[in-house]
Give the backbone structure.
Amino acid sequence: MSSKRYTDEFKIEAVRQVTDRGFKVAEVAQRLGITTHSLYAWLRKFGKPGVVQRAEVDQSAEVRRLKSELRRVTEERDIPKKGRRVLCQGVKAKYAFMQAHREEFRVCAMCRVLRVNRAGYYAWLKSPDSERAKEDERLLGLIKHHWLASGSVYGHRKIAKDLRDLGERCSRHRVHRLMRADGLRAQVGYGRKPHFHGGTPCKAAANLLDRQFDVTEPDTAWASDFTFICTQEGWMYLAVVIDLFSRQVVGWAMRDRADTELVVQALLSAVWRRKPSAGCLVHSDQKSVYTSDDWHSFLASHGLVCSMSRPGNCHDNAPVESFFGLLKRERIRRRIYPTKDAARAEVFDYIEMFYNPQRRHGSTGDLSPVEFERRYAQRGS
């Protein structure tokens, strides 16, 4: 069997995880499912000045001064917002608030805003706490770690399962209480306006998938679709291919045009990675790019079977719609991208560094797609 192939864009983004984001080579290779030898080869090829952006130069003293002033003003604005409940309470309540937010705000700033003595705060820290309070504080540190590692999107149920995987004995109700007290919240969904499309596609295939989203083997049924991402340089379009067995994104591509080449490149990426057997079902909706001659020719040349949703029925392609909802809720709608390259890097980080190897999925028993496939392979060996 031939080895997997990757695009140059994929390789450059993988290199950036090491050179720009500070990940170790072994960690990036493990998350992306590649060998360290391949990643070192990509580093030698693409890790040159001009290809991978270097870290920004140190800021001038004036910029540092302005940042310090901005931090002070921000603290004086945000501390009363988060601590409004303790402003009229006793000193111990204010000390407890300061301890809970000491990683977010400076102690000197909180003392100034809450009008308490710093020496008194440190003396209060030395007083013995109950064992329950100490255990809550330790658990809260673990909760914050997993919450931040999820991109600030996990709720108390998923974090409780993360803690149980580490051997911690705590209920999800306790995790919920600690998260609520510290202001840690899960990302929730968002509404969007319905769209109506008319017309008849030229080459519509039958709905062979028929909402049978729970498949028993990998690479037997894939689903594809594309969405748009707004940047300050213009629109970018993202096409993905998802294996319905594990909900893993097995192929994706980004372009500044929503044309047939976009969806074909995403499917080609999936074929390179997975090498599916003939007869693998590829489901999509009836957009013009999926009814084009190029799309159908590509499917036929690789032994793939075409399946399409009914006109105007997004529920027939629910797994991909769900993935796009997660992507937009957890990343895209939370920031504005200055460049198209920044959007591409964010999508790479979400799919390859978080969603596939780490993010728990309800349809796979709260396992990540990669872990779900790994356990399936172990059972078959």
